[in-house]
Amino acid sequence: MLGKDCQVSKNKIVIKEKPEGLQSILHWQERTIRNTLLILGALVARTGYGAVPLPGGCQIGERKYDLHVMLLQRLGAEVWEDKGMLYAKAANGLRGNEIILPIRSTGATENAIICGSLAEGITRVWNPHIRPEIIDLISCLNKMGANIRVFGQEHIEIRGSKGLRGTSHNVIPDNMEAITWVVAAVITDGDLEILDFPYKHLEVPLIFLRESGAEFYKGENSLIVRGGRCYPVEISTGPFPGINSDMQPLFAIFGACANGESRIIDLRFPGRYDYVKELSKMGLNYEINGNMLKILGGNPLKGETVKAVDLRAGAALFLAGLVASGDTNILDAWQIERGYNDFIRKVNTVGGSIYSE
Question: Which residues are catalytic?
Fold first, then answer.
């Protein structure tokens, strides 16, 4: 659609530009995606103009895109909306500038890095969200000819390049998939070895899980989970290296399998608890007081027809289905499969029973 040819094999994606060159307008009729914001940034940085459908993604509370508009404007672009599309134009190219993020946003940090890599001059991103995926993106871009330096959590400095070149890059393991398998093994009292486990990226969540009854140890290049017993948890989400907002639905299931009261506060997306309404159909007892979710654990769950309202909500429902009696039918299960590679085969390989209709 944008003038790129993508060849996808089992363990590799090869991207080449077509002879006709890059297109500046993304015509996308499928379900809405959040990443259109990053596509817009890349298009205007590369061609001086871009148009994409308004962003979608998981509906997990108030997810504005004003930070993305702000950073594009700071770099000299004009940004506007029209008939369901978001447009950006920088007739003379983007120009480096100081970008101050009021909150540590992963997407806005990524967009600023992408745009700054092709902007003229120096761009500094203050208060960035420094997390493993950001460092991996920077590593890839630097291989492609970008000049990016990270000054801890304070700021990122990007010296604009006239162009980027192709490269070969190994993407880091997905820490969200990794932590999902850990929780799955513990709540089912399973015995599981997770290869290529990103231990350094998950030190804080693993501390909470170990202190809450999970039993595991590091292998040579893996994490070996020996089940354990779930105890109540008390967590609040926060920037890396803390517990990511995406992880809290998984901790909610962990708490549901414990005898006692667990408490969760989501500081990034307050009120991101719509999934518990679906879990309540399976027998979950809970209370919401302001921005605190209380899970009253120990009540056996039963299979039911439920709906995945977003990606991690779907993952939570899957975990609940593993420990529930009877069959669990998850509607809109595409939400899960878009975030977990080869999901069904992996579940069935390690002893689960799951299929898609």
Answer: 58
Question: What's the whole-model pTM score?
Answer: 0.90
- In this structure, are strands 234-236 and 222-228 parallel, antiparallel, or unpaired? unpaired
Q: 345 is written with which tokens? A: 């085969």
For Cα atoms 135, 176, 298, give the angle at the middle one, nearest 5 degrees.
Answer: 145
Give residue-wise pLDDT tens across range 309-322: 889 999 999 999 99
The reply to whether 4-159 and 175-349 are identical in fold is yes
* Residue-range domain boundaries for the chain: 4-159, 175-349
The alpha carbon of 290 is separated from its chain's Cα centroid by a whole number of angstroms, namely: 25
The residue written with tokens 């101050």 in the block is: 100
To which residue do tokens 């998981």 refer? 58
d(CA 41, CA 295): 40
Confidence of residue 328 (pLDDT cuts 50, 70, 90): very high
Q: Distances in Å between the alpha carbon of 243 and those of 162, 181, 191, 238, 252?
A: 38, 16, 24, 6, 13
Q: Tokens 């993407």 map to which residue?
A: 171
Give the integer Cα–Cα distance in Å for 205 and 34: 26
CATH homologous superfamily of 4-159 equals Enolpyruvate transferase domain (3.65.10.10)
Which superfamily is assigned to 175-349 in CATH?
Enolpyruvate transferase domain (3.65.10.10)
Q: Which positions ≥6 away from 10 have C-beta within 8 Å?
A: none
Look up residue 70 and give its amino acid: M
